[in-house]
Amino acid sequence: MNEELHADRKHKDTVFWMLYSDKRAILELYNALNGTDHQNPYDLTITTLKNAVYLAMKNDVSFLLDAGMTLYEHQSTWNPNMPLRDLFYIARLMEKSVNKKSLYQSERIRSPAPHFVVFYNGKEKMPEDTTIKLSDAFIQKEEKPALENSD
Fold first, then answer.
1. pLDDT for 72-114, tens place per residue?
2. How big is the CA angle at 112 (ends 59 and 83), to the nearest 5 degrees?
3. Is 115 helix (H, G, I), strand (E, B) or coil?
């Protein structure tokens, strides 16, 4: 019998999460991607969403470092909806970090800048470095989408 074997996607996600659930491993990956040389893993705060708390919404790895909130996702199948998923993830993470009463005060709430990286290792050929924008999915194309424009 000539049977084709398929990798279990959930298993692959679990392996990625297990590899990068340790602060030292996350810091090593962060340094490699950003050309930095952080040494102290205690400067990093893990903020990964867990499935049970957020009603089937979980991300692979997220953390705070250098006044930024970084989200790493691993995908074994190409997913053009990652910008929308990342928007949901970052909204949940920001919501967790803010006292809701403070949203109505007159002082600005300071928040970490979000950074998103998706690691893809699927069979569909993709360029090594690809940027997908949330606005790519907008029904009505806009020259300067408000969510991506600083003007």
1. 988 888 999 999 989 988 888 888 888 777 788 888 888 899 9
2. 40
3. strand
Pair of tokens at residue 138: 């907008």
Encoded tokens for 52: 């049970």
Are 122 and 82 in contact, with CB atoms under 8 Å apart? no
Which bin fits 149, alpha (ψ -120 to 50), beta or left (φ > 0)? beta
pTM over 0.90? The answer is no
**120: which residues sit within 8 A by CB, 6+ positions away?**
74, 75, 76, 78, 126
Tokens of 71: 């989200």
Provide the 8-state DSSP code for 65: E
- Closest C-alpha among 58, 78, 85 to residue 121: 78
Strands (E), 11-101: 45-46, 61-65, 68-75
Do you know the residue count of the chain? Answer: 151
Give Cα separations from 21 to 37, 39, 91 (angstroms): 19, 17, 21
- Which residues, at least 6 apart from 60, have a Cβ–Cβ distance to it below 8 Å? 13, 16, 17, 20, 48, 71, 72, 73, 74
Partners of residue 74 on adjacent β-strands: 119
Residue appearing with tokens 């962060």: 30
